[in-house]
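Re-run with default settings, no changes from the original entry. Doing this only to confirm the output is reproducible before filing.
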Amino acid sequence: MEQAYTRTAVLLHWLSALAIFCAFPLGVYMHELQLSPRKLQLYSYHKWIGITVLLLLAIRLLWRLRHRPPPLLPGMPRWQELAAQGMHYLLYLLLLAVPLTGWLMSSAMGFPVVWLGVIPLPDLVGKDKLLGDTFKEIHETLNYTLLVLVLIHIAAAIKHHLIECDDTLRRMLPFLKPRLRAGAKTNVSRQSASR
């Protein structure tokens, strides 16, 4: 089985990461602003990014149906395999739930979602202030949950790279060359010595 992710999978991963890293601080920042045209514009940008995350998730899931991800690297303890699989499922679930609850909140608050300022999206629920407040709380909680999981995901990737010294992170960073395996190092050393 292929040991590396496809270029498309890598691109979709980093586009999703970029969208999250833009949407989260924007959401925190705009939340504290006084009502103004600027705040409404920032809310629009935030919604655009959220809908983009949903679209990227749909494309990623469709891509994965036809292109299986590479297996985890050999030698990983079983608990780490289960943790990695569980983490990926939770991240996918939150990539769906966070923008969806934002869309539901916007609909319930009576604010339409117009993707990129051009494509109006349907309201998912009718206008209902109480329901909007509920979705707002859920959306905020899920956002902070996503933040924690993303930080754990990053920490695990760095641990694999710096402590385990394996190729886990390198498979998602194509500009990094894979490390030489122990057997390959030995062969290279022998070839150098014989010259």
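Helices lie at 7-31, 37-66, 78-109, 129-162, 182-194. The radius of gyration is 21 Å.
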